[in-house]
Write the structure tokens for this entry.
Amino acid sequence: MTNPDVISHSQAASVDNPFPPAARTIPIGRVPFLRLASVELRKQVDTRAGVWLLVTIAIISAGLITLPLVTGTADGLTFTNFVSAASSGQLFLLPLIGVMAATSEWSARTALTTFTLEPRRTRVNLAKLASASYLGMVLMVVTLAVAAVFNLIGIVWLDTGGSWEIDRPIILGTAFALILLVAQGIAFGLAFLSTPVAIVAYLGLPTVWSILSFAIEPLSGPAEWLDMTNTLGTLMSGLMTADAWAKLLVSVLVWIGIPLSIGLWRTARREP
Amino acid sequence: MITATNLTKRYRNSIAVDDVSFSAEPGRITGFLGPNGAGKSTTMRMLVGLATPTSGSSSVLGVPFHSLENPGRHVGVLLDAGAQHPGRTGRESLALSAQLMGMPDGRADEVLEIVGLTAKEGGGRIRGYSLGMRQRLGLASALLGDPAVLILDEPSNGLDPAGIRWMRGVLTSFAASGGTVLLSSHLLLEVEAVADDLVIIGRGKVLAKGSAAELLATKGTSVRSLDDDALSRALTIAGFDVTRVSDGLSTSAPVADVGRLALEAAIVVIDLHPASNAGLEELFFSMTAQHGREDVPA
């Protein structure tokens, strides 16, 4: 027993008693949903994987937003175009944060802690949905700010038209699409409960479906309703009609509603 | 206060926990003892709502676990020290739980200090932690909400002997402050050293329960004197069983009777004590021998 470090541990415990009788004084309150959601948000960005994914998104967005400055024609350099350019990387990568938010509870087995601190598991999953959507919105706001700076650069140095016109249907549609894709990421993560399987399924299944429906003639009709790539494309181009909203709703029910239901059911039953 | 009532957990073709009932009282450490695969972990998981019992029920502080508001503030749980995100720092994983429970900001550092992890260790990623450090972090996490009840599954796993002694100190002072401790182990000596009450389980069934003193009480006395032959005769005449052992006599007589007989016979006693306590180990092995398992699923 010459390890001084260990000996100091045992002394510390006996010298000052960390549990004085009747010291439980901090009042016990319920856990509000907003607090649960903010903890879930923190969990999405406090791991190395989360940080790197955000850094990657920032780098890719920066690259994509610069592209119009280099290649675009002068009249293409508008605020709305900058926003669209920057968002495409986020639309692709941000859902992976959703996937990881759902799967890491099981792959890192933190579900053990998470569900003993909040036994209502569906509430935890809803907090994940809310916080990941919020993260998407924060990114959108940052994108809008950066796009504004780039547009200013275009106006001042490149002498472009630099229209400040905000094409609201496009920007709102893009923001909404981002939320839907993040929700899809979480839904797939919850349904598969394994990071690699969920990512492959999230990226692969819709693509396979798109290819199939393109190649096989009889599928092209249903595909208008069931292909989220199509329906989100319409949403992001700001060309929504009543018919397009109905198609979006159906595709969302299939690609988000079904996996999310499976995921909530699996989470509720699974023993961590 | 923890109560389990007829808890049963059946998996597809096996029964993991079979009609288990016991209670753990405040101010006491209850040792939950059994060989690997006996159903200790499954029982604890049911107590904290991670597994649903096939039948039976349990309560913590008088209510089912899932009815507790902010359960982390009532019950500290350590089920598996390995179940922590390797990419987070120890301090961050504590801070997350503290935030969720509504504990003040400094609480993570406080519990790090209680469990003897330095600020530098707390700032390191869990990926690099030794098993002992993870165990300390797990205990820190259990203590975080300043709970009234601790439920700990094999908390001494991976701790060095000094660490184990330190853990005993922490649990003893926690119980002394009025807290309830339920602590599982497959190591008898470890539980014997710290538990006030015992629940012994094998193959899913409770084999024995009661206060440690009761379960460990042994009848009989060991005695050595300057004239063992005379003492042996005196004991036999008084109607007690006597056997010669290498270092004196072993008898069924209580200590006081042996002393009185020796005094009456004017025999000088040089060693007199209750029969050496073969202790929990013997009890444990005798009760679980037929339940010993080689093929323990993880």
